[in-house]
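Worked example 2:
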Amino acid sequence: MSVPKLRFKEFKGKWEDKKIGSICDSIVPGRNKPVDFDGNIPWITTPDIEQNGIIYDSKKGLRVTKEEAKKVGSKIVPKNSIIISCVGDLGLVAVVGNEIIINQQLHAFIPKEDIYYQFLLYSLSIRRGYMEKVATKTAVPYMNKDNCNSIPISYPSYKEQSKIADFLMAVDEKIAQLTQKCELLARYKKGVMQQIFSQELRFKDDDGSDFPDWEDKKLKDIATRVTRKNKEDNKNVLTISAQQGLINQEEFFNKSVSAKDVRNYYLIHEGEFAYNKSYSNGYPMGAIKCLNRYKKGVVSTLYICFKFQDGNVNSFFEQYFESGLQNQEIEKVAQEGARNHGLLNIGLDDFFSIYLTVPSFQEQTKISNFLTSIDEKITETQTYLDTVKQYK
């Protein structure tokens, strides 16, 4: 290999190019499944691997004895070895954190003295393309022993390997910290949303006084249906994404899935809502999203579109719908057994007759500002996390 483009200044000279089989001892597992699970050595399979993780244990808690391992022809994989998946989802890589035994979907490498195991982990993690290329193409692709041992590895001196690996581990640690922060913020938001919308947690007015009680209101009493047709032939065709809300189809799918002529679609403006009656993961009664990303856009007439009347806070209702508080009401009017290809059978009158439990305008504003501030923190952290991942 030629000298890498990015390198620590104190190192010079070219890297070595070798096949992994020449710089590691490899372990090929025996039979596919042990008979005895009463031992203390973890029996590891592909689902136990998390990319670039450390394998300490089996997620299913399976254990094997050394004696049983010998019977099925399996060798013990020592600590600081590297394992890769070689059947199905090829190229998942992990470091072995303690002694394990692997099944036939995995292959293990024990680095020789001049190879730092953590450097080897990162080297293998960017070889998935090669693995897919050399794998035997069947219904379930697989790599045999020769395929596994032929994986090319470029490496410098042990000292440089260590410095590179330590640097990348520091980046991984930062990624792990940011990932955990995102998860904790999301969990915190979910918890406070439950408290807010159950009215266990109430806000007070600026003068310290209590806000009025929340009221049950029909959607039709606080919102108006939007049915304006796309007479201007707006080409910004939108779809509903669980994570991104109303988003341009080509941006989301990398292609358009709409009709060629969209002039009969509904034209909605920024701040207006669209309801997709199709149930999906996390949205058992369909998703309701507000248009925030664009000034205008068009949606299929299968969507129910509406806007809130003056005296209501759009961003409050975004949070309300995201909490799923409306699902119980929608479920009451969704006809039993009338789901067709994921589409809920809900009449317009029934939909606009669902009840929403609504606070005053002032409390809506307080709730919206509070939850939006958490969203901004989550977005900021996620953006930073994505940046660090891209940097790595």
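The chain is about 35% helix and 20% strand. The mean pLDDT is 90.
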